[in-house]
Amino acid sequence: MTSLGKALLTLFADVEIHGREKLPKKGPVLLAGNHAAILEVVMLAAYTPGNVEFLGTGDIPFDRNYAFIVKAYDLIPVNRGNLDRQALNTAVSVLEQGGILGIFPEGGIWDAGQMQAQLGASWLSYRAHAPIIPIGFGGILDGLQKAIKLKRPKLVMNVGDPIAPVTLEPGQASLKAILERSSTQLLDQIRSLVPQSDAQLRHTKLNEVFSLEVQIHSARSGTPVPLPEDMQIKHGSAYARLMFYPVILDILVRNLRLPIHAIKDVQERKALEPLIAAWSTILAYLEVNPGFFTYRFGVEEGLAVQKALNELRHLALWVQERDLSISVIPYHRYLDQQTGEEVLEKGGRFPHSMRDR
Prior knowledge:
alpha/beta; Glycerol-3-phosphate (1)-acyltransferase; four-stranded antiparallel sheet; 11 strands; 20% strand; elongated
């Protein structure tokens, strides 16, 4: 499958690799790169001389359109957001046996500029005493779609110098502090290897502020109705953050196939059943996978998202009983590091999977 992947990449894309000689024939070694789509997996497997096993998602189903690609390669599924000792032990075993492990340190596919350092790669490096090779990919976003349309996208893979295994020396800070510092440094090195032309990753958002505007009106007259104290949305900023994370919303809709399209249009909403059902559906999924939001937003913010969903559902039921209408508008304010301009977004940013309805 590796040879086939290389042949298909050569046929349908313009592939440019810098530092190819640094790709290993054997391990123990971790290959760590940024992750915007499925093509990074194909490129790593196709151009690395040795066999690469990947640490990947096991907590959500793969997009059915691309699941066949994932099945073609060796994948160690990990239940992200929950302590998955079996997956971690398997990954350590691969490295201890001299294997090559592919991993994406931000812990999943993220919007440009929203990557967050997870501790997995650094912990595996420490545990198996394995070096890490940072890799920056470019041209990946929409690359597969362009290739399918015979537009030959330019795909770039910049391979960095190996990083020594993470160690904890006597007298150093705690292991957690060492792992956090190493993870941040690794992600910084990966970002530095992403091509300058990949502008998507250059729009870093600074001083982000999320807020939620909730208004209640009479369904008949449109007169504003005061919101009772016990109906206040105390965690609205967390919900607003979710509304501006299209990658996470896309997982909910496309991978998990949750019917939540109603959440994208809640200005002067009178028919509340679809909205209540959407919030209830997400909450029901959290019963099955409680770490879904805490893994992606952090524990405090992830729990706040869940609380906000409960608060909004409770409010919507109250509004429904009184024949009122509700308006829920998220806002996102930030400073664009590249342009220096302050940006205000309103209403949310939704993936293509939610724009067709």
